[in-house]
């Protein structure tokens, strides 16, 4: 079959006057293609194409040339060009796993020429080996055929060049001869690489851990000995017997971006043995048993049989809210609000066009009171009114001292932007009979409705954790929302933040700036806070540090600026699960009041969590600027593991009981390094829930 393929290839080449490229011509073609591929085919003037069919033909033509360029780059061992093509095109566009006329794939050429860097780059992109090589014999036969037929073609062309008189046709044959000589050397090098290769060594650092009550996870490294051929896949085997007789299952891993595998569907409380072996073009290498040799699927909750804390809570809250709405449907407070001040009546807009309407209700200046401002941003631009002002509406012009409880109530309302109308109807009461607190909160709902109507947007975003105040008695409650690029708005005016800051004419002195000036000066910090508070942790088990400080009207919690929705923390390991055995050890340590493990011990192989905690505690103490010797008085919270979904969990490290919460006026002897802030506890809880 291979011989027939080569004959077909030769006939096709004989019909083409130019013939195959010489090594230098191949390099020139490769360079030319490299220049062309720096511009995507979609950048050409599509208006000049006759129809969709021709566009598709042009597209396929360029993709075909990109596939040819990839083969050229691999054959010429040009790692930079290979990486450039893999970055520019998808595996499908490159036909990464479609064999060429010689039955070879780019990965075959890379591994048989023992070019490990290019082979790894191709493997990371999802490259596979040729399906033609079903055995060692088939690969050897294929390579021998390629070498023999290339040598035969070289001899034929050499005889023609020697016997023919100098002419244009002879010059073409000389070019073909050089190209085939170069390809002959390539095939011989591939054949030699295959013949001298050996099976890979066993994978290194095979670690086994308990992933859940029904799964275990195995992680491993490439074989340490790199003298053999490139590893292209791994095999994970598991069994209930240390001899793996009988085996329970196996899985082949050919996606080498992450060298780990989770074995699921196991029986809780049963010991499972795991081993891993590597494969290259010479076959499977010896297996490597895991450390520890077996694992028992379990979860810390099995220790005392407790149910997940949050099971059914969201559903119960939704049901409770539905019941409240049902009760209020026919009550007197469901009547439309008629007590709105005349100055607050507005029509609800369906777009942002009212930002630029002269009759909009946005304020230009503040006059001692409580206000609401909404900051919408996209990249480095911010949304402004037709007068280049950040949208501001008034809540209460007689309110000059925002109580913390009112502010916290407002932040809770921000979780229900879609329910503001219903909340207004429920809070609507006679102004003469309601308390000052209820009147203030009713005015807050009116201001939210006004802002939503003028902007034509219900979701005003996240409330900044503290209002902006000035010495003139103005208070600004700030909401922040990032506008995604795929959202469309009508008649929107976006202004670069830097331009808005430089063009705004301040009406206050630098010593006593107004709340609006303060907001504008610090807007980048607030946007950074908003972006960072929406970041999620990568999967894993973390050690968190709980430190509180109290004030007259609130308790605040210490958090990192880079991730203000999470406690100060360090990562213990990538596996978030705490097994039953690990939890038993933690309970034992807590029951005898042992200090937290800060000093290394000689043998920690039987309890990897012990060593992991030692490293994490040392790192955490350095992070929050606490001497390591002080950590001996700290303790691990042993009542539960804090689970945040299925992929993130926390163990808490607590200071001594008297130091968990710093009282007003009490000095904290260990001040954290820069990069931390304290949030009101209720604000932190809301951000954590989101």
From TrEMBL:
It comes from Formicarius rufipectus. Residues 202-299 form the Fibronectin type-III domain. GO terms for biological process: establishment of mitotic spindle orientation; regulation of establishment of bipolar cell polarity. CDD domains: FN3. Residues 1-25 are annotated as: Disordered. GO terms for cellular component: spindle. This is ANKF1 protein.
């Amino acid at each position: 079959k291979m011989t027939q393929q080569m004959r077909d290839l030769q006939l096709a080449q004989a019909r083409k006057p130019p013939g195959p490229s010489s090594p230098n011509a191949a390099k020139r073609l490769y360079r030319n293609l490299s220049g062309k591929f720096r511009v995507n085919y979609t950048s050409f003037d599509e208006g000049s194409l006759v129809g969709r069919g021709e566009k598709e033909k042009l597209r396929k033509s360029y993709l075909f040339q990109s596939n040819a360029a990839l083969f050229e780059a691999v054959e010429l061992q040009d790692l930079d060009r290979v990486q450039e093509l893999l970055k520019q095109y998808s595996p499908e566009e490159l036909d990464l796993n479609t064999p060429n006329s010689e039955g070879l794939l780019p990965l075959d050429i890379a591994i048989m020429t023992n070019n490990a860097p290019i082979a790894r780059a191709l493997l990371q992109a999802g490259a596979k080996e040729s399906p033609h090589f079903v055995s060692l014999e088939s690969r050897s036969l294929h390579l021998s055929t390629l070498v023999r037929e290339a040598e035969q073609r070289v001899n034929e062309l050499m005889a023609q060049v020697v016997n023919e008189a100098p002419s244009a046709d002879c010059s073409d044959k000389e070019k073909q001869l050089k190209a085939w000589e170069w390809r002959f050397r390539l095939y011989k090098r591939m054949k030699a690489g295959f013949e001298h290769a050996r099976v890979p060594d066993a994978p290194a650092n095979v670690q086994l851990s308990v992933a859940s009550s029904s799964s275990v996870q195995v992680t491993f490294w490439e074989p340490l000995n790199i003298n053999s051929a490139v590893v292209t896949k791994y095999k994970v085997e598991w069994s209930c017997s240390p001899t793996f007789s009988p085996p329970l299952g196996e899985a082949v891993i050919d996606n080498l971006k992450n060298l780990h595998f989770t074995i699921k569907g196991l029986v809780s409380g049963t010991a499972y043995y795991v081993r891993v072996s590597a494969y290259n073009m010479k076959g499977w290498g010896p297996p490597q048993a895991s450390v520890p040799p077996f694992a028992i699927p379990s979860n810390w909750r099995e220790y005392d049989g407790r149910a997940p804390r949050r099971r059914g809570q969201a559903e119960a809250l939704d049901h409770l809210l539905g019941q409240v709405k049902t009760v209020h449907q026919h009550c007197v407070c469901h009547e439309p609000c008629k007590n709105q001040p005349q100055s607050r009546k507005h029509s609800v807009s369906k777009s942002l066009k009212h930002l630029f309407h002269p009759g909009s209700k946005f304020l230009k200046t503040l006059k001692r009171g409580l206000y609401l401002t909404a900051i919408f941003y996209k990249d480095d631009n911010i949304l402004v009114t037709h007068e280049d002002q950040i949208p501001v509406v008034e809540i209460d012009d007689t309110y000059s001292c925002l109580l913390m409880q009112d502010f916290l109530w407002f932040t809770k309302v921000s979780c229900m932007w879609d329910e503001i109308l219903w909340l207004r109807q429920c809070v609507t009461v006679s102004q003469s009979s309601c308390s000052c607190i209820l009147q203030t909160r009713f005015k807050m709902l009116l201001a939210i409705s006004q802002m939503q109507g003028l902007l034509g947007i219900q979701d005003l975003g996240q409330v900044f954790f503290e209002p902006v105040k000035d010495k003139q008695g103005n208070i600004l409650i700030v909401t922040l929302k990032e506008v995604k690029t795929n959202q469309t708005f009508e008649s929107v005016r976006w202004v670069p933040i830097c331009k808005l800051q430089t063009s705004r004419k301040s009406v206050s002195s630098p010593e006593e700036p107004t709340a609006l000036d303060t907001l504008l000066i610090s807007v980048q910090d607030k946007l950074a806070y908003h972006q960072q508070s929406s970041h999620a942790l990568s999967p894993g088990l973390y050690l968190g540090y709980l430190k509180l400080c109290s004030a007259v009207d609130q308790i605040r919690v210490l958090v990192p600026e880079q991730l203000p929705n999470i406690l100060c923390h360090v990562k213990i390991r990538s596996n978030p699960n705490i097994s039953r055995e690990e939890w038993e050890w933690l309970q034992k340590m807590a029951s005898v009041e042992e200090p937290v493990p800060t000093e290394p011990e000689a043998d920690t192989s039987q309890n990897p969590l012990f060593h992991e905690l030692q490293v994490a505690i040392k790192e955490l103490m350095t992070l929050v600027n606490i001497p390591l010797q002080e950590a001996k008085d700290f303790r691990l919270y042993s009542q539960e593991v804090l689970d945040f979904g299925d992929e993130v969990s926390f163990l808490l490290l607590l200071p001594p009981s008297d130091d968990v919460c710093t009282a007003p006026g009490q000095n904290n002897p260990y001040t954290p390094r820069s990069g931390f802030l304290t949030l009101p506890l209720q604000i932190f809880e809301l951000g954590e829930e989101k």
